[in-house]
C-alpha cells in the first residue's frame, strides 16, 4: 500500500516535458523608468542599473551591452529593485534590495559573480521598487571598513543591519526613527529612510536621510551605526532629503524635494553639509522668472575633484528637466541642457516631437569614478551617457541602452503579411517591428496614445490594422481609435459620431473616451467594428457609422480571418456565443454545442485584457475560446465545440503556424502544468503541452500576452510586464 502511494505521488509531481528554446529580446532600447544608476568603485567600466519593474542590469564593458541580471527570477515582486550596492573593493560582489510594493514579498540578494547567480534572503521589511519614492536612494550601503556589514534604510520599519553579508538582518534599535509601519490602504506608501551613505575617508562616519514627517531629516553616526544623532540645520522642514553624495573632502551634497516623487514634486533645493565644521550652505541652482520650479533628485560628486558636483531636476516641465554642473562646489552652475545635443540614432523613437528632449524623471545621475568625462543620467524613457562631461563646448549625449528592455506590453499581433510583429505598449504606445533586432523609427502616431489596448489585423488583407488606446488622462482628448493600410507604419485617426463620445447619463466618460472600446477589422479589411457604449461599425473608414444589432455592450468581438461576413463574440453574461453572418451588422446566438453553460470565465475584464476568442488564420470558421483556464475549439463557426484534453490551466494563449504535417495550429500558452507556471506549446490541439521556457528565462513570471507567428513554425512572442517583448525559437527541431 505504501509503495502504491509513493508511485502515485511520483506520477503526480512529474513535470511537463520540456523543449529547449532560444530566447531573445525584441529590440526597442530602454523604454521605461530606471530610478538609479551606480558605478563600481572597484573596477573601471563596471556599472549597475536598477529598474522599477524589470530587474537590475550590469554594464558589460567587454561586450558593450547591459546584461539583465534577474531573468531567472520566478517571484514577480523581486523584479522591482529598491536599491543596488556594489562592493567598494571586490568587483565581483554586489547586492540588491528587491520588492515591488508594500504588499509583496521582499528580499536582499547577494552575488559573488556580478549578478550571474544570487543568494536570496527574504526580509521582514517591505520595499517599494515600483511605488512612489522609487527614485530615492541608495537605501542599501556597505560599510567600507567592515564589508560584511550592510545597512538598509527601509520605507516603513526604520533602519536595519546585517553583519554577515546580508544573510541575516536585525533592526537598529538605537536609530531614532522606528518607521511609520506599513500603510493601511492600497496604493499608498511611505518614503521612509531615503538613503544610507558612508564616508569612506572617515572610518565609522555615515548618514541616513528621512522623508517621513518630523523635525529632523538627516541623521549621523560616527561609530559605524552604534549611536546616532539628528543633524540640525539645512533647509526648511517641508523639503525632504532625496539623495546624497559625499566627496573626498568629506562634505555631503544633498538634493531635496517637497515630495518623494517621481510625480507630485513642485519644489526643491540643493544644500551642502560640512560634518567637520557642522555648517550648511544653500547652493540651489538659480531659477528664471516664470519657471516651474520642480525639485531636485539626482546628485553626484566627482571622485577626482570634490568641487565638481552635479544635480538633476524632476518635474520641472517649464522649460525642461535638466542637469546642472558646477566646478566650484555650487558657487556657480552650468545648465547642461542648453549646451547639449542628443543623438538618438540607436533608439530613434525618442524623437517624439522631431527632437528628443533632455528627459523627464531624472532621478538617477552618476559620474564615473574612473573617468570624470563620463557621466550618465536616467529618465522615464531611457538612459543617457556622455564622454564630454568635463569638457567645454557642446556636450553630446547618447542613449546608453544596448541590452536594456524595460517596458510593459499590453497587446501584440503577428499578422499573416507585412511586418512580423506589431505591438501595443504601456506609456510608449507601441511599435511596428519590421526587424526584431532594430529599434523602430517611431512609436504609433496620428494619434499617439500612451497605451495601446487592442490591436487587430485583417486576415485576408493583413496590411490593414486597427488599434484602440488611451492616454494618461481620464478622457482621451481627440480619439482613441486609429487604422492603418500599410501594416502599421502610418496610422490615421478614426472618429466616432459626437453622440458616442459624450459622457453617460451618470456623468462618467463614454467607453470610447477612456480607450475602453476595442476595435476589430473584418477579414477583407473593409469593416471596422467598435465596442463603444452603443456598438458601431463603419464600412467607409469612419465617414459614416451604423449601430450593430444584437451585440451586448462590453462583449469582445473577433473577426473570422478568412470570411469577411463573419464576426463572433462571447455574451458571457447570458452564456452564449454570438455570430454575425452579415458583416457585423447584426449578431445572433450560434448553437455553441459543447461549451460550458457558464461562460463567465470567458469574460474579458478591463480594457487591457486579452481577447479569449481567437480565429485561426487561413481557415474559415475555425475558432479557439478560453473559458476559466480551459480551451475549446470549433471548426464550424461556433456551432459545435470540443474541449481540449490537456491538463494545462491557461492564463493567456495565442496561435501560430502549424507544425509540418499537423492539422492543428500551434498553440502557445502562459499556463500552469503540474504545478509549474511557464510558457507552453501544443501541436496536437491542446492534448499535450511542452514547456518551452526554462529556469533561466522566467522574467519574474510577469507575462501578459502571447502569440505565435502565423508564417514561421515554432516562433513565439511573449509580452512581459517589465522586460519588453521576448521572442523564442526552438532549438534542434530543424525548422
Automatic annotation (TrEMBL):
The keyword Hydrolase applies. Keywords: Carbohydrate metabolism, Glycosidase, Hydrolase, Polysaccharide degradation, Signal. Residues 1-15 form the signal peptide. The keyword Ribonucleoprotein does not apply. It comes from the Bacteria. Belongs to the glycosyl hydrolase 74 family. This is Cellulase. It comes from Sphingomonas citri.
Amino acid at each position: 500500500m505504501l509503495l502504491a502511494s509513493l508511485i502515485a505521488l511520483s506520477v503526480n509531481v512529474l513535470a511537463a516535458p520540456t523543449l529547449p528554446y532560444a530566447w531573445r529580446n525584441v529590440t526597442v532600447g530602454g523604454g521605461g523608468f530606471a530610478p538609479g544608476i551606480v558605478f563600481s568603485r572597484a573596477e573601471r567600466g563596471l556599472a549597475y542599473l536598477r529598474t522599477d519593474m524589470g530587474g537590475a542590469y550590469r554594464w558589460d564593458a567587454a561586450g558593450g551591452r547591459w546584461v539583465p541580471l534577474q531573468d531567472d527570477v520566478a517571484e514577480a515582486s523581486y523584479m522591482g529593485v529598491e536599491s543596488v550596492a556594489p562592493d567598494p573593493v571586490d568587483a565581483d560582489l554586489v547586492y540588491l534590495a528587491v520588492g515591488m510594493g508594500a504588499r509583496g514579498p521582499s528580499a536582499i540578494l547577494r552575488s559573488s559573480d556580478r549578478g550571474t547567480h544570487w543568494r536570496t534572503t527574504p526580509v521582514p521589511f517591505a520595499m517599494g521598487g515600483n511605488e512612489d519614492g522609487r527614485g530615492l536612494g541608495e537605501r542599501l550601503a556597505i560599510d567600507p571598513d567592515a564589508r560584511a556589514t550592510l545597512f538598509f534604510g527601509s520605507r516603513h520599519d526604520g533602519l536595519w543591519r546585517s553583519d554577515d553579508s546580508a544573510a541575516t538582518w536585525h533592526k537598529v534599535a538605537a536609530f531614532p526613527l522606528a518607521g511609520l509601519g506599513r500603510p493601511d490602504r492600497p496604493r499608498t506608501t511611505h518614503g521612509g529612510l531615503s538613503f544610507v551613505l558612508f564616508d569612506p575617508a572617515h572610518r565609522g562616519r555615515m548618514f541616513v536621510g528621512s522623508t517621513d514627517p518630523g523635525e529632523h531629516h538627516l541623521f549621523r553616526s560616527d561609530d559605524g551605526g552604534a549611536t546616532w544623532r539628528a543633524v540640525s540645520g539645512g533647509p526648511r522642514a517641508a523639503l525632504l532629503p532625496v539623495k546624497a553624495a559625499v566627496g573626498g573632502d568629506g562634505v555631503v551634497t544633498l538634493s531635496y524635494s517637497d515630495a518623494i516623487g517621481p510625480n507630485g514634486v513642485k519644489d526643491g533645493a540643493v544644500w551642502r553639509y560640512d560634518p567637520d565644521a557642522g555648517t550648511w550652505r544653500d547652493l540651489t541652482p538659480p531659477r528664471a522668472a516664470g519657471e516651474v520650479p520642480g525639485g531636485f533628485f539626482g546628485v553626484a560628486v566627482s571622485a577626482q575633484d570634490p568641487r565638481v558636483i552635479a544635480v538633476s531636476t524632476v518635474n520641472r516641465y517649464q522649460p525642461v528637466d535638466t542637469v546642472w554642473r558646477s566646478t566650484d562646489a555650487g558657487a556657480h552652475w552650468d545648465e547642461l541642457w542648453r549646451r547639449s545635443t542628443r543623438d538618438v540614432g540607436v533608439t530613434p523613437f525618442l524623437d517624439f516631437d522631431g527632437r528628443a528632449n533632455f528627459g523627464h524623471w531624472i532621478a538617477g545621475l552618476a559620474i564615473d569614478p574612473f573617468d570624470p568625462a563620463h557621466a550618465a543620467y536616467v529618465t522615464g524613457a531611457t538612459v543617457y551617457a556622455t564622454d564630454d562631461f568635463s569638457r567645454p563646448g557642446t556636450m553630446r549625449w547618447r542613449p546608453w541602452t544596448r541590452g536594456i528592455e524595460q517596458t510593459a506590453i499590453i497587446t501584440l499581433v503577428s499578422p499573416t503579411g507585412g511586418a512580423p510583429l506589431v505591438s501595443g505598449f504601456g506609456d510608449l504606445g507601441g511599435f511596428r517591428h519590421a526587424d526584431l533586432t532594430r529599434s523602430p523609427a517611431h512609436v504609433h502616431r496620428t494619434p499617439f496614445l500612451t497605451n495601446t489596448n487592442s490591436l487587430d489585423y485583417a486576415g485576408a488583407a493583413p496590411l490593414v490594422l486597427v488599434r484602440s488606446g488611451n492616454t494618461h488622462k481620464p478622457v482621451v482628448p481627440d480619439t482613441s481609435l486609429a487604422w492603418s493600410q500599410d501594416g502599421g507604419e502610418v496610422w490615421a485617426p478614426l472618429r466616432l459620431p459626437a453622440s458616442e463620445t459624450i459622457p453617460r447619463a451618470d456623468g462618467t466618460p463614454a467607453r470610447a473616451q477612456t480607450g475602453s472600446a476595442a476595435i476589430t477589422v473584418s477579414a477583407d479589411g473593409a469593416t471596422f467594428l467598435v465596442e463603444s457604449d452603443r456598438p458601431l461599425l463603419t464600412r467607409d473608414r469612419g465617414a459614416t457609422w451604423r449601430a450593430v444589432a444584437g451585440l451586448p455592450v462590453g462583449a469582445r468581438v473577433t473577426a473570422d480571418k478568412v470570411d469577411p461576413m463573419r464576426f463572433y463574440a462571447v455574451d458571457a453574461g447570458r452564456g452564449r456565443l454570438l455570430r454575425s453572418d452579415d458583416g457585423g451588422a447584426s449578431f445572433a446566438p450560434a448553437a455553441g454545442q459543447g461549451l460550458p453553460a457558464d461562460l463567465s470565465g470567458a469574460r474579458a475584464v478591463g480594457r487591457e485584457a486579452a481577447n479569449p476568442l481567437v480565429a485561426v488564420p487561413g481557415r474559415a470558421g475555425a475558432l479557439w475560446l478560453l473559458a476559466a483556464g480551459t480551451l475549446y475549439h470549433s471548426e464550424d463557426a461556433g456551432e459545435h465545440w470540443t474541449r481540449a484534453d490537456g491538463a494545462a490551466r491557461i492564463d493567456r494563449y495565442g496561435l501560430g503556424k502549424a507544425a509540418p504535417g499537423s492539422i492543428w495550429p500551434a498553440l502557445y500558452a502562459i499556463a500552469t502544468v503540474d504545478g509549474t507556471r511557464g510558457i507552453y506549446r501544443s501541436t496536437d490541439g491542446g492534448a499535450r503541452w511542452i514547456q518551452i521556457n526554462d529556469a533561466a528565462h522566467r522574467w519574474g513570471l510577469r507575462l501578459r500576452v502571447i502569440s505565435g507567428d502565423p508564417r514561421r513554425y515554432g516562433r513565439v512572442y511573449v509580452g512581459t510586464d517589465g522586460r519588453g517583448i521576448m521572442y523564442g525559437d526552438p532549438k534542434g527541431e530543424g525548422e
